[in-house]
Amino acid sequence: MITHISFWALAVVAVLAGAAVFYVNSMARASYALAVSFIAVGVQVLLLQQNYVGVVTILMMVMEMAVMAVYMVMFMGMNPALMPMSMVHDKRHALAAAVGSFVLLAAGAVLIPWPARRGRPPAGVTVALGEELMGPKMLVMGVVGAVMAATIVAGVVLAAHRTRYDRFGDDLRRRPAKDPQPGGVGR
Amino acid sequence: MTLQTVLLVAAALFSVGLYGALSQQVVVMVMMGLELMLNGLILAAAGFWWFLAPDPSGQVLLLVIIVAMTVEMAMGFAVATHLHRVRRVDMTDMAADLNG
What we know:
A: mainly alpha; B: 3 helices
């Protein structure tokens, strides 16, 4: 009973906080609302007995929202907690698409005759996940590792202030390189 | 708490996120919309795992969704940084070069 009440309370918090992201009039408040929504969903995932995934979701999203708040201060050039803003376009079509997708998904959730549960959860869910990742699902772990490494490289290349194209031109043939400070071997 | 109720909540989160991703102009706010959509996906996947087939493979899928969210965040921040440096803008409408 407590689980059911907790689930519904968290569901209300998650959805309302999610809606608040696009309702509040500052980006800082929006990022905090999103963090609240993620925490509520993380606890719901914990209620579904997935301790590791739930905790990872909560920790990751709280950190991400902190980064996002710093980001807004850096690039918006204002105190985002105090500056009201409303920057939307095509609100009517977006609302129609959102309502349509909810009706479609809700109809599917309610009308589909879902099969009965197959099997039982393992005694140690987190241990089982670890053994799965380090055993039969090692390929997933390998691919995830490669994707994360590629993301780091791509992120740094995109965010870097100067790259080899700035130094050597679009065809990489400019010599000597265009550097802010002249110098180096042979120059 | 049933699979249907979990999926209904997930659908609500996904739809709210879709509204944000389509309607917001600031790149960071668009990312927030995408993350809300992935938030709903996480909940739906957790519900499927618990109510249909609670074996470890389903948890691996959840982990992949979380990784997708991480990659989206990292690349989104990188693109926003690049966009801001090159054009001094943070709005999607001012970076519509590849638009249709």
